[in-house]
Amino acid sequence: LMSDKYAVVGNPIDHTKSPLIHLSFAKETGQNIDYAAIEAPIGGFSEVVDKFRREGGLGLNITAPFKLDAFAYCTDLKERARLAGAVNAMKFEVDRVTGENFDGVGLTNDITRNLGRLMKGRRVALLGAGGAARGVVLPFLEQGPTELVIVNRTVTKAEELGRQFKQYGPITAIGYSALADKKLGRFDLVVNATSASLRGELPPISPEVFGDDCLAYELLYGKGLTPFLRLARNAGVKRLADGVGMLVEQAAEAFVWWRGLRPDTGTTIKKLTVPLE
Ligand code: NDP
After folding, report:
1. CATH superfamily of 104-244
2. What superfamily does domain 4-101 belong to in CATH?
3. pTM of the model
């Protein structure tokens, strides 16, 4: 019996945890699936997807740097993908290719369910306005924060995001110097959605952004204490998290979309968690 075929596409792809996550979901829910990791050459995304579909593939997860290529490839877009301008999961049917984006809902599920933090009535700071941040803005606003402050090095990109989503909730878009100048006060949740940590860099924020009982969330995962998490810890922040929960939760959403069954995420998150101390 042939198994249903799924895969993750990225470049590089050697460190991906997606096959492990999906195969553990499949085992737990009794599903017979095949899940591969495919490295597409830069500029060669659509050829790789064409081939995967010809071979009977049913769905893909998409990681950096192909989320915009995936967006362009789809014939149908779910609202979250359309608004994010990026696709992180695809479903293939005979006559159509549907694109979804589960990054934002994965992050909010991790924050609200696994970490037990309400965003309703809280002040939230989102650092970064790149691919990951774009997918996070709407799911954050849907949680009902009193204010969402988007901070980005290239201020125009933050402002663009702010304009695009302003009808969905209270957004302020600024740069780092304005964050320091304007005395915007302390935040209940500070999310680092920049890629600074990948190069051991720190977005220029002061320890004063972290409020009492703040949660500091780093999207990068598996790297232990990043400069951002270290700053938060040194500022006295007790709740630190990295993006492993987000990764597993977005995978779970894709699994439900493809297979119609919801896997348990707790055991998989535990298996992949690298201690932050
Ligand atoms: P992008 O390249 O699309 O965006 C990068 C962002 O980081 C931009 O806003 C950029 O600002 C900012 N930035 C980069 N370096 C610095 C710096 N030194 N100081 C301040 N800002 C900086 O990246 P992605 O959005 O795709 O990814 C961001 C992070 O999220 C990565 O670490 C990635 O690993 C992680 N991620 C985690 C996921 C998970 O499931 N846990 C899912 C997706 C991403 P500017 O616009 O000015 O260039």
Report:
1. NAD(P)-binding Rossmann-like Domain (3.40.50.720)
2. Leucine Dehydrogenase, chain A, domain 1 (3.40.50.10860)
3. 0.95
Q: Is 67 among the residues known to form the active site? A: yes
**Candidate of 66, 134, 195, 221 to mutate for ligand 1, largest count of ligand atoms within 8 Å of Cβ:** 195
* Given the residues 5, 27, 51, 67, the one annotated as active site: 67
CA of 223 to the centre of ligand 1 (A): 15
Q: Tell whether ipTM is more than 0.95.
A: yes
Percent share of the chain, pLDDT over 70? 100
Long-range contacts made by residues 193-200, C-beta under 8 angstroms, separation at least 24?
Answer: 193/126, 193/127, 193/128, 193/130, 193/132, 193/133, 193/136, 193/219, 194/127, 194/128, 194/130, 194/152, 194/153, 195/128, 195/130, 195/220, 196/227, 196/228, 197/223, 197/226, 197/227, 197/228, 200/227
